[in-house]
Amino acid sequence: MTTNGFPRNAGCPLDPSMFEGHAVNLSAAERRAATMGTRRSVKKAHQAAWLVNAIKMIDLTTLAGDDTKERVQRLCAKAAQPLAPHLKSALGLDDVRLTTGAVCVYPTMVGHAVQALEGTDIPVASVATGFPAGLTPLPLRIEEIKYAVAEGAHEIDIVITREHVLKENWSALYDEIAMMREACGGAHLKAILATGELRTLRNVYAASMVAMQAGADFIKTSTGKEGVNATLPVSLTMVRALRDYGAETGFKIGFKPAGGIKSAKEAIAWQILMKEEMGRDWLNPDLFRFGASSMLGDIERQIEHYVTGRYSAANRHAIA
Amino acid sequence: MTDIISLMDAMDYGVAPEDTKIVDQWLADHQDGFGHFIDGAFTAVGQTFDVSNPATGAKIARVTQGTDADVDAAVAAARKAQPKWAKLSGHERAKYLYAMARHVQQHARFLAVLETIDNGKPIRETRDIDIPLVARHFYHHAGWAEILADEFPNAEPVGVCGQVIPWNFPLLMLAWKIAPALAAGNTVVLKPAEYTPLTALAFAQIAAECGLPKGVLNIVTGDGATGAAIAGHDGVDKVAFTGSTEVGRIIREQTAGSGKGLTLELGGKSPFIVFADADLDAAVEGVVDAIWFNQGQVCCAGSRILVAESVAPKFESLLKTRMAKLRVGDPLDKNTDMGAIVDPVQRARIAELVEQGRATGVDVHQATAPDGCFYAPTLITGVDPASPLWSEEIFGPVVTMTTFRTVDDALALANNSRYGLAASVWSENINLCLDTAAKVKAGVVWINATNLFDAAAGFGGYRESGYGREGGREGMLAYLKTPLAKQGKAEPTPAAPHAAVGLGVSDDIDRTAKLYVGGKQARPDSGYSYAVNGPKGPVGLAPLGSRKDIRNAVEAATKASGWGKATGHNRAQVLYYIGENLSARAAEFEARLIVLGQSKTAAKAEVETTIRRCFWYAAQADKFDGQVHSTTGRMVTIAMNEPLGVVGAVAPDAAPLLGLMSLILPAIALGNAVVAVASQSHPLAATDLYQVLETSDVPAGVVNIITGPRDDLAKTLAQHDNVDAIWYFGSTEGCAMVEAASTGNLKQTWTEIAGLRDFTGQDGQGKQFLSRASQVKNIWVPYGE
Questions:
Q1: Contact call for A200 and B13, based on CB within 8 A
Q2: Active site amino acids of B
Q3: How many CB atoms are located within 10 Å of the residue B240 CB?
Q4: What are the transmembrane regions (chain B) (predicted)?
Q5: What ipTM does the predicted assembly reach?
Q6: Which of B189, B415, B565, B653 has the most other CB atoms within 10 Å of its CB?
Q7: How does DSSP classify residue B338?
Q8: For chain A, how many structural domains are there in total?
């Protein structure tokens, strides 16, 4: 099976030598992350282009206890038309199909989303496996995946059992993710590592590698519910892991930072990270997604500023 | 409207040029040229030279070539202003330094843009590194001014400081030089580099804007001749130079015998050591910060990568990938990683050295660079210590890579250099990191990091990288002096001794004084002796030492390096023991001193003081410790006092026991080995010491004593490349000779006219001696998990 011309990750047998003893120095990772956004600057038309590109890679998300069908429909409407028509037009994008990368919802909302997005080609992503803690029994988690897929989800964002990482029980982690991948069938699996709860960057690297070995199509930082969400140093570590995995196996793995990413500036910063560490291929929705909801509003405001020269206000843009 | 669709296809960065309007206007306002800044005002424009923007080749300013008369005027202004400036309270001086810090921040972008245009370095660096560090340096030293009297009691400013700075960090080096000088109460004549004088001139305007009293800071522009005029000026009390080792040598020779203080911050060829358990991606980024920072024009640049064989292929591959991503070009573009080389002359030099190296069969890997005064990031693999690329400072974006097998191998390679400025160590094993940091010969060591700077930490090198520190407490010491409590009269210079026979000297049982080398009494290589006179004629014979005896003694001292690794406690025990054994034989030493012409009281006092001094330095051996500097966040910056190595100590003629021991004791208390030249006229007090040393568990080679012609022996010591420092107490001519002869390995010197210092009193001991006997190594240890 292929996606956009490259083969889907087939995984490989668990191989701890690919991550055990792999050093990640926190201070150094922070230094590199801190200069990512100061070594590169994207201005004017380039900035507009980069911001529109970011829109294409957003998993527009609602994961709230009070989600309803109508709420999900509203989100889907925004996903289908993420940029106000006058802005799109002003950027010369009238003839371009511009949607977010996906919408991301809870399993019981998948049906509503699929319905609302009919005819748009926008994939529906579902969190699953006892999101966000992931501590429901494994058979139930597997069932949940199957349910979401049956409801029409094209992508499943699973959460891993943090305990397996903290105890360095790599085979348990591998087996769990491999079972989940199998349950996904044709749907893509995004493995949420909940990095804020793994703490060390070495753990982040190891968990990333196990997830990829077990067949994850994407690795994702956070549920958005941990104390610490997506950070640049964590992202750097995960991206280097997928780079190393790719060098070893030839498979291209996607990356999804999620949680706490709110500004257009961050949209640029993460794209710089992907371009610097991986190159242009990782600026496409098949290899990169933002897990975000409020970021889109800020991007629209910045684009309006580019178009009009005036600073914009949030209430002028449709909310998700 | 620009085609957004095609921009989205490419997803390039585009250009993000920094606006230069304000700086362009400033340059236009000064299109008639710049004069010097002397006595609080700009002088008329004299004969000028052009200053250009290396990135474009465009002439951007005309600057006055400083003449001898200009330097005279600047020194006179500084001299006139100095007493009043020094008399201000620390608080008053702090207010000026604080104002300068604030005004640098207020003009931050102007200075950053001007620096980039003048020097060619990327705007990211001037904006995020150079200028913030400049402000930080003034803030930090405003603090030293404020608390100077509390922290350095009895210290005084040196006077007028002549400072000559390089072109690689023009404004930052100005800050490093003038902030501590002014904080301490000195006044300054500073010459910026001829390639990059503009931010110094802008800073002069800022200083005036701050209301700095006239004459306190004087800026004279010009070339090397102007620099030489400043360094050689009689009215200058202290010279501080940052630049090439070659010019540093010239300045050392030029100032020899002038009595001027001197600090030198010179070249380097710093090792960048990557152990197998390092975070290799982090280390790769470290190389970027080490050698592709400021176009590699950094004295402390990690220019020799030493990588463990087991990870070398992987590291090389990662490094090449990263190197290819570097953007070289317009320094004003915010997307530029590397800008222009400062001048076509420098670019040609870099290219020439690389081509010379290429001819030796190494592999040269280069990224790309645009045409013009740019040079591509370059990695050269397969470089071994025999290659000129290993030893020559290239001062460009060129890094060599060499593999090692073991930790010992890595250290041997790291230390295989005439330089000793900085080192960078990469490993996740803290034991290995600190062990390497302790063993590497460098004034600054960065663990899992590189090129970190902060005003609170000392910066400066070992070996031919110079001496003196800039920044921190240790940096302040370079701009302060402790005056003698009571100044004595210069000793008469003793005539050189000659071998003699038939002097009619007799003892009950004949005693033969020998030399003391490597823990053994040794006959002089010459096979001659000379007469030692008391007040009534000859009282004995002393061996006539020669250059070969010095050679043997230095050899023995070098082998005694284990002493530097002994604990302070162990060294203290030995020093106490010397005191104990000296005390047991006090009567014998008193008698000897009386025979040599001392009064009974003076002899008793000299022995007594020597014993007390043994105890004082024994007490200091485990107490003269370092500091943890308060630098950046989540960082332990350890300032460690390390021994220099081999210290040559040439004793004054008078107080033949105490004078000699006052030099030996602080040196050995801190772990140095000593080659001492005894009082030429009265060496028998020294030769009597051998039995004391032998019975006091002093390890062989830690103390070596030579007798004979003082200045001949001093000259051999000063010229010896394996001697790390020389202390000389003798004649005026001798002081000049020692300083001039020290340039071979740029050893530290401490020269004084014998007799001025009263070794029997409080000036004969103290922390000043201990500072002289040590060098500070700053080790930066970041932490975080």
A1: no
A2: 265
A3: 29
A4: none
A5: 0.96
A6: B189
A7: B
A8: 1
